[in-house]
Every structure is written in structure tokens, then in C-alpha cells.
Amino acid sequence: MVDALNAKHIAGAAFDVFVEEPATKSVLFGHPNVICTPHLGASTTEAQENVALQVAEQMSDYLLTGAISNAVNFPSITAEEAPKLKPFIALAEKLGSFAGQLTESGILKVEITYEGHVAEMKIKAITSAVLSGLLRPMLGEVNVVSAPVVAKERGMVVDEIVRAAQSDYESLITVTVTTERQERSVSGTVYADGKPRLVDIKGIRVDAEFGKSMIYVTNEDKPGFIGKFAGLLGDAKINIATFHLGRVAPGSDAIALVEVDGVVPADVLAKVQALPQVKQAKALTF
Fold first, then answer.
1. CA–CA separation, 176 vs 170, rounded Å?
2. What's the whole-model pTM score?
């Protein structure tokens, strides 16, 4: 090849594979009519500069608008989609966290149902948020990227169901978790103010915002519970911020979801659990 180039039989040549690389010892390397490139085109100086600019631009887009492009392990989200997705991703993470904090046995299956406008969005990103919220109380450092992989490794079945609006809400996300002991469902939506809301817990209608510190109680719907429960919190100097109640039917199963100021001490929670009407009492943090 060198002889042919020097004799002008060949005007020029280009190679990107050599027996030994880098090919600095090759007789072709440095010839004025030869172009030598690495086998990986992206390793050229120009390509590295362009890649660096692309990465900087994509990070800037994510930090400023929430847009995600060309991610290996997360669905792409445009700048137009990001503002619409953001409140639903926050809702999904909290719904998953709610279910995860109440789960006390191995998770077999997670079913996520999307109804209404949210069903038309990038639900893969929302599903990842549900799984990260669900697994974090049990495993600690889990994020929206690693959560789907962790769920698969643990043998969890994850089903996504998309359907037209069948509820009273413009958009509704329902997370149903099946464990070795039971099945639990929780639903939520995003109102016009952009804040995520709990609207259904185990088939019981509620309308509650997620507070930083909350107490979740399942109890029998009998007179005296609310007074005794609130009295315990008052005696412990725990201030109630919001108080939400729901029940299946009069005298049947009921729930209380209470936002409080500050962390709930374990001894106070134990006293709540000991109330005769209470079936379960759990401290939640979001």
C-alpha cells in the first residue's frame, strides 16, 4: 500500500482497523495521503468534543426543564412532556412509598393502573417512580433507574394497565400490591393545584394530601375511637395538622390518616395500637 501510494497508483487510503492499535508503528501512520482512525469513530478528537457538548446540553435540559434524551436506562422525555409528567411522577413515588411502608412481607406482584389523561403520558417513567417508592422503605438506596431492575431481580411481577377514564377524576393512578399475605390497593390523583392526593385506600374513599409525617390507622368504626386517639396525641404534645377519615359502611372497617407535626415516638404509636378499636397503626414519612 505504501509503495502504491508513493508511486501515485493510489491517490489516498483510509483505515480504521490495524493488527496493533494504536497504529503508531505502522508504515502507514503519518503518511500524508493516509487517514488512520480508531476502530471506534467516537474516539476521535472531534467526536469526543461533540459528545462532551451533547452531554452538557442534555444535562442542562434535564436540570432546567426535566427533559431526558438518549438515556440508556430511562425513557426519553421531551421538554414539553416534562412539566406534565412531573406531578404524576411525584404522585407515583408517594403512592409506592405509602404501599411500601405498609408492606411487611415479600412482594409477589405490583399492578399499576392508569386511567384518564395520565394513561396518554410516558407511563414507563411513572411506573419506575412507583417501584422506587415501593422498594425504598425495604431496601434503602433505590432510585427510578435502578428500581425496575431490582424489582425484576427479586422476582416481582409488574403489570401496567392502561384504560380510558372510568372514575370521577381526570387522571387516576391505582397501585395494587400483592404480597405473601394480602393484597392492598391505593389510588391517587393530581388536582389543578399540582399537588398529589390520596383518594382511595383499600376501596375506602378519602381525600388527603401527603404530609411529611403521618399516622395511618385501620380500625373498627365504633364511637369513642376518635376521642381516645386524639387524646393520646394531645397528651404526647403531638399537634394534628390534618385529619382524614373513611369507612366501608357504618360500624364496619374504617381508616384514619392523620398528618402530624414532627416524628411520632414509638411509645405513642404503641399506645394507639393498643386502643380496643384499632387493628393496625403505622407511622409514615414522605
1. 20
2. 0.75
**Cα(262)–Cα(94) distance, rounded to whole angstroms?**
19
Q: What is the Cα–Cα distance from 9 to 31, expressed in whole angstroms? A: 15
Nearest residue to 158 (alpha-carbon basis) of 200, 201, 126: 126
User: C-alpha grid cell for residue 252?
Assistant: 364496619
Which DSSP state fits 238?
P
d(CA 175, CA 184): 8
Question: In whole angstroms, what is the distance from residue 271 CA to residue 278 CA?
Answer: 10
Interatomic CA distance for residues 132 and 151, integer angstroms = 9
Q: Is the dihedral of CA 164, 166, 168, 171 positive or negative?
A: negative
CA distances to 111, 115, 215 from 161, rounded to whole Å, are: 7, 8, 30
Domains of the chain in sequence order: 76-210 (3.30.1330.90), 211-286 (3.30.70.260)
What pLDDT score was predicted for residue 41?
Answer: 63
pLDDT at 70: 72
Q: What are phi and psi of 230, to 5 degrees?
A: -65, -35
Query: For residues 106 and 181, what is the distance between their CA atoms, to the nearest angstrom?
Result: 8
Whether the pLDDT of residue 187 is over 90: the answer is yes
Which residues are CB-contacts of 85 (< 8 A; sequence separation ≥ 6)?
A: 66, 77, 121, 122, 125, 126
Q: What is the mean pLDDT of residues 192-220?
A: 92
Question: In which band, very low, low, confident or very high, does the pLDDT at 46 lie, cut at 50, 70 and 90?
Answer: confident
Q: Give yes or no for a contact between 128 and 147, defined as CB atoms under 8 angstroms apart.
A: yes
pLDDT tens digit sequence for 220-261: 998 989 999 999 999 999 999 999 998 888 888 899 999 999
Give the list of residues 6+ apart from residue 143 with CB closer than 8 angstroms, or none.
132
DSSP-based three-state secondary structure for 232: helix
Asked if 256 and 201 count as a contact pair (C-beta separation under 8 A), the reply is no
